[in-house]
Amino acid sequence: MTWTLREVGGGTEVVAVHDGLPPGVAVADNELGHELALAKLAAWVEGREEV
Question: What does the pLDDT profile of the chain (51 residues) look like in tens digits?
């Protein structure tokens, strides 16, 4: 998995590329997992959620 972070307009753009997805893991499920994890991280960083 390769993560790239770039400063954009007062924020950060995050790009994650997951090469070699294991057999049996649907691409859509993998994408949803990333989206949920990043939303949780954003909420924690912004003080909206406890770890």
Answer: 899 999 999 999 988 888 888 999 999 999 999 899 989 988 998 988 766
Any idea which residue has 């649907």 for tokens?
26
- Report angle CA 46, 13, 37 to the nearest 5 degrees: 55
Residue with tokens 């859509």: 28
Tokens of 33: 């997992």
Residue type present at position 36: L
Let me know: does 19 contact 25? Beta carbons within 8 Å.
Answer: no
